[in-house]
Amino acid sequence: MKLLITLHHRFELWNAPTWLAERIRSDFPQLAVVQLPNYDRVTEEIADAEIYFGWSLRAEQLAAARKLRWVHSTAAAVHQLMIPELRASNIVVTNARDVHGPVVAEHAIAVLLALAKRLPSAMRYQQQRVWAQEQLWRESPPPREVVGATLLVIGLGSIGQRVATLARAIGMHVIAVREHPEKGSGAAHKVHALEKLDELLPGADYVIIAAPLTDSSRSLFNADRMAKMRSDAYLINVARGPIVDEAALAEALRNQQIAGAALDVFAAEPLPADSPLWKLENLLITPHTAAISDQMWERHYALIRENLERYLAGKPLLNVVDKSKGY
After folding, report:
1. Cα dist. 46→189, 192, 262 in Å?
2. 288 included as an active-site residue
3. Disulfide check for 162: which of 105, 187, 206, 325 has CB 3.0–4.6 Å away?
4. Is 199 a catalytic residue?
5. Domain coordinates in residue numbering, the chain
6. How many CB atoms lie under 10 A from the CB of residue 26?
């Protein structure tokens, strides 16, 4: 049984470490493991592979994969894999949502606190050697407490659930919207259907987007949605860039229609140097680093090993993606 690994990215950490194939071979000697350093030979090598670890597949690569039964993505988002041919197949797709969720949630809460305490402004004053106690107090909104504030979480998957847990631990009131509210509120105080989003936005102090990118979530936060937010509210996106209309957000921030925002993800990455987003002082930008952790690949391997054991034993896999929904 052949396992093909093709995880190549311009950012070093996203690349599969050299020890990945070696450890799999040691733990599963019955597998023939091929780890490619780039995408040049995917079509050739996938022809007789039963398992594929990668973020994306082209239609011609899938057509060549005569034995393929399972695709695993080491990302949480799988939109790049959701080509019509794969959706229509009986190939099982799994993702790494439980690997990334807790770390991304930490980042979301970190930037929420940074915005609440005006830390980006404080850093700018520090660079100017200005003791800005009075200036920070007079900014709008001034530094404030998060205890008792209302957080609206968009999506209650692995990231959203952990965000809700952490937010409740620091005393926030957490409401959430999800596509299927019948699945429960989890750690949130209340859960609503996505159709209620417009009604809930005016009551939120902070909004954290933790939803998958699908056809229905693309540009979910457009100019109309931002107009429903309060002028002292903050928007945080740690999901996928296209969920937010960046031009509409830039306009809302320039006009102080909302207090500020924090983005870790963007429609185009790296964010182009000429993007107007760079110039907005009420926008906190992080370069898609929410999931970065020195323990990331160890957590990846724990999931990979568990699922390989399940696959070889004919048991159900963890983190199976609903291909009809795209997450």
Report:
1. 46, 43, 40
2. yes
3. 105
4. no
5. 2-98+294-313, 100-285
6. 10
